[in-house]
Write a structure and sequence with these properties.
Oligomer: single chain
Number of domains: 2
Largest sheet: 2 strands, antiparallel
Strand content: under 5%
Strand order of the largest sheet: 1-2
Number of strands: 2
Number of helices: 4
Radius of gyration: 25 Å
Length: 89
C-alpha cells in the first residue's frame, strides 16, 4: 500500500465518523475538532507532491582525495560513504 493509498483510507475512515455527528454506536464518541484537524492534514498531504531530491555525486578530485588518504578497500569505502552522506544530507 502506498502512502497515498493509506492516506485515502484514513481520510475515508475519518470522514465516516461525521455521519453520526460524533456519535457512533452505543459507546463511541469522537472529538470532532480532532477529526476535522486530521481530515484537513490528510487532504493537504495528498495535495502535496513529494519533492524528489537530486543526488549529489562526488567529483573526481574528491574521490582521488579519499584514495590518497586511506590505506585499504574498506577504509576507502567508508570514507567515500561518509563523504557522500555529507553532500546529500
Amino acid at each position: 500500500m502506498t502512502k497515498d493509498e493509506a492516506l485515502r483510507l484514513a481520510l475515508e475512515a475519518l470522514e465516516s465518523t461525521g455521519e453520526n455527528d460524533g456519535y457512533h454506536g452505543v459507546d463511541q464518541y469522537f472529538d470532532n475538532v480532532l477529526v476535522e484537524k486530521a481530515i484537513t492534514a490528510i487532504k493537504e498531504a495528498l495535495e502535496t507532491k513529494d519533492e524528489q531530491r537530486i543526488w549529489v555525486k562526488l567529483t573526481d578530485e574528491e574521490i582521488e582525495s579519499v584514495y590518497m588518504n586511506t590505506m585499504n578497500f574498506q577504509q576507502n569505502a567508508k570514507a567515500l560513504e561518509t563523504k557522500l552522506k555529507e553532500k546529500n544530507t
